[in-house]
Amino acid sequence: MVAQHITEIESGADVPRLSARGVTVGYGDRTVIDTLDVEIPPGVVTTIIGPNGCGKSTLLRTLSRLLRPTRGSVVLDGEDIARLRTRDVAKKLGLLPQSPVAPEGLTVADLVARGRHPHQSWLRQWSSDDVSVVERALAMTGVADLADRAVDSLSGGQRQRVWISMTLAQGTDLLLLDEPTTYLDLAHAIDVLDLVDDLHESGCTVVMVLHDLNLAVRYSDNLIVMKAGSILTQGHPRDVVTAELLHEAFGLRALVIDDPVGDRPLIVPIGRTHVQSPGSSNGALAT
Asked: What is the CATH number of domain 2-93+172-251?
């Protein structure tokens, strides 16, 4: 497990690592999330979905302590996250924000090594243990052969793997990923999400925000469906994804069918055009 290989973090199997209790969050005078409660189950991939502006990224940023709620609290491993030192939070929780940017010319190895910063102090300098953790993080994400390359010379998919490698080097098995497939083509998006799935299989608890509904369904064990700053439902995709839910959350007309290559539902959107005519048997499209 990642927790065994990178750090020794213990948590009860049935106790959520991370939760929000009565959280209200906003920007200035605008409230985005109002009195929200949520628990993140340990050891699974949780994905937050919902229409644009519903508060997905705001919730993730609040769970990571980048945003401070005006009311309520976020609890990390049984403690109010607001009362923890920043260094202690970074030892427990790794965050990949939207579209991170590395300093020009920084190498992959140097960026991943920055993940060890929470463990450094004037009493504890860089050590062979840090070297081993960075090497493992590079290997786990499949970017060890890129160690000497400049981050800004990599493809989008490679860069996302490198940033995830840096969060792993923090020594945490709790990862928060804000839209990790943004700006990636489908092949690279699948590549990154396969990596997320590998990390989950290795023992990580992962929380993601995704826009692509079918990718969210395929790669998640737990979905949080949001609308207008509230949670409509939460659970396994097989239990919560219905045509009625999609219409309520997104205003989307869709069929929900069995995925022919997976064990989760598949969402088939229904638009105004390019839909087969009722009773059509020759594949003609109605316009």
From this structure: 3.40.50.300
Question: Hey, what long-range contacts does 85-93 have (CB within 8 A, 24 or more apart)?
Answer: 87/118, 88/118, 89/65, 90/117, 90/118, 90/170, 90/172, 91/7, 91/118, 91/119, 91/170, 91/171, 91/172, 92/9, 92/172, 92/174, 93/18, 93/64, 93/172, 93/174, 93/175, 93/176
3-state helix, strand, coil in the chain (%, to 5): 35, 25, 40
Closest C-alpha to 199, from 167, 237, 154: 167
Chain segment 165-197, per-residue pLDDT in tens: 888 888 888 999 999 888 788 998 898 899 899
Q: Give 121-139 pLDDT, tens digit per residue.
A: 555 566 667 788 889 889 8
Give Dmax over CA atoms of the chain in angstroms. Answer: 75
Query: Where does residue 107 rank: exposed (0-12), middle (13-18), buried (19+ CB within 10 A)?
Result: middle
Q: How far apart are CA 152 and CA 216, in angstroms?
A: 28
Q: Is the pLDDT of residue 4 over 70?
A: no
DSSP alpha helix (H) spans, the chain = 2-5, 56-63, 86-92, 108-113, 128-140, 156-169, 186-201, 213-219, 237-240, 243-250
- pTM score of the predicted model: 0.84
Which pair of structure tokens corresponds to residue 183? 């700006």
Residue 190 to residue 97: CA distance in whole angstroms: 19
pLDDT at 59: 96
- Sheet with 174-178, strands from edge to edge, namely 94-96, 174-178, 205-209, 45-49, 222-227, 230-235
**Structural domain boundaries in the chain:** 2-93+172-251, 105-168
